[in-house]
From TrEMBL:
Protein name, per record: Phage protein
Organism per entry: marine sediment metagenome
Length: 54
């Protein structure tokens, strides 16, 4: 199975990689300039694909 990521997703993952361990979702959506629902959708996709250690 191949998962293709858009440039925006890759940029967002780079920001997440820079975080120490935990961050507040509200701060993250502000930093990424995305909607909270978009963030939660992305997290759910990671869980479904068993990615990111969720």
């Amino acid at each position: 199975m191949t998962i293709k990521l858009k440039k925006q997703v890759i940029d967002n993952l780079k920001i997440l990689k820079e975080k120490k361990s935990e961050c507040e979702a509200s701060a993250l959506v502000d930093e990424l300039s995305i909607d909270y629902i978009v963030l939660m959708s992305a997290v759910n996709d990671l869980i479904d694909q068993r990615l990111g250690g969720f």
